[in-house]
Write a structure and sequence with these properties.
Shape: globular
Strand content: 15-25%
Number of strands: 8
Order of helices and strands: EHEHEHEHEHEEHEHH
Structural class: alpha/beta
Largest sheet: 8 strands, parallel
Number of helices: 8
């Protein structure tokens, strides 16, 4: 059994068959799914799914691409829900910054401010963070340290293999590993994977995105965590069962509310 710690089941591409997708994943051994927040407009859908299924939970937050949607009072309402177990996904993404120097500086400033607000919310509600970092390693790490995010810890979603971020393991942060690990061009992640403390690795899909091989280019689904686990076992010289056990235990430590799920013996 495994836990998918990052799966966008509220994405519109699941509108027509989300219950079938969830049922298939459960039959394949996915015993827990966390739906991260991305847009304020999708949180009600995520919340409804979490209340429909015992083994599904959600997080409340705003993806850095949507930082203009930040509404603290609305987020607080969701964070009061017992099935809302984390704050995020939140963070910094410099991949699509404006070319204009002034506009670029303003965009970075706004992302920094909203990221810091998410961290403060996490500390207020004593819930871990789901952190999105793309092309912004130094600023992301600086803000996490300045805001003392280690109080709550969290996960670096879709860990980008930056060695600069590795010591955040000592600050209560876990590393989300997904389909990228199976890509042919994932040499850096393959090299860095053994450097991550074994008690700080969790599985994720980021479904419907980043579909692992051999299904790359198709819609990602939660049971594909099993493919990631298989590749991880191969790279770390472990059995698949050992990877399942290790990552599930880690997920339970990270998201303590998952302990409420009726899990198979680990």
């Amino acid at each position: 059994m495994v836990i998918d710690t990052h799966c966008h089941l509220d994405d519109e591409c699941f509108n027509n068959d989300v219950d079938e997708v969830i049922g298939t994943a459960y039959k394949e051994g996915v015993r827990g799914i966390v739906i991260p927040g991305a847009s304020i407009h999708d949180l009600e859908k995520a919340q409804a799914l979490a209340h429909r299924y015992e083994h599904i939970f959600f997080a409340a937050g705003i993806h850095p691409y949507h930082h203009h949607e930040y509404n603290e009072e609305r987020l607080k309402d969701f964070l009061k829900d017992e099935k809302c177990i984390a704050v995020g996904e939140c963070g910094l993404d410099y991949y699509r910054l404006p070319e204009d120097t002034v506009e670029k500086a303003l965009e970075k400033k706004e992302q920094h401010e909203i990221f810091a607000k998410h961290i403060r919310l996490a500390k207020m509600f004593k819930k871990p963070l789901i952190v999105h970092i793309r092309d912004a390693n130094e600023d992301s790490k600086r803000i996490l340290l300045e805001e003392e995010a280690s109080v709550v810890g969290g996960v670096l979603h879709c860990y980008n293999a930056s060695k600069h971020l590795l010591d955040l393991a000592n600050k209560g942060f876990y590393f989300g590993i997904g389909g990228v690990l199976t890509f042919k061009n994932a040499k850096q992640l393959v090299e860095v994977l053994p450097l991550i403390p074994m008690d700080k690795i969790v599985l994720e899909t980021d479904a419907p995105y980043l579909t692992p091989m051999p299904y790359r280019g198709q819609r990602n689904v939660p049971e594909y965590t099993l493919l990631v686990a298989q590749k991880m076992a191969e790279l770390l010289g472990m059995s698949v069962t050992e990877v399942h056990t290790m990552t599930t235990k880690n997920a339970l430590k990270l998201f303590k509310a998952l302990e409420k799920i009726k899990l198979d013996t680990i």
